[in-house]
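Re: the request from the purification team.
They wanted to know what the chain is likely to look like in 3D before they choose a buffer screen. I agreed to run a prediction and write the result into the notebook, where they can find it.
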Amino acid sequence: MARNAREALAEGLADALGFVGGALGGWQLGRALGFDVLAPGPMDTHALVGWLFLLAGCGAGKLMSRRWARQWLTGANDPTHKP
């Protein structure tokens, strides 16, 4: 649990931005490979694989944004930071 409002806000924004950014990235990667979720027509195997790309992107984006937020909050990128 976050200790203060700054940490809670950073975690919430990191989750939201990572989730949405990852979803957009996964969707675009799936589209580039021919697996478009929003393609017209019936739900077929290509659309389902597109959903997998989108969902994997959501998870990866959230994971990466959480790691970035943790580093930012702890000051791990600060050259004067001593662990």
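For the purification team: The chain has one domain: 10-74.
Please add any questions underneath this entry.
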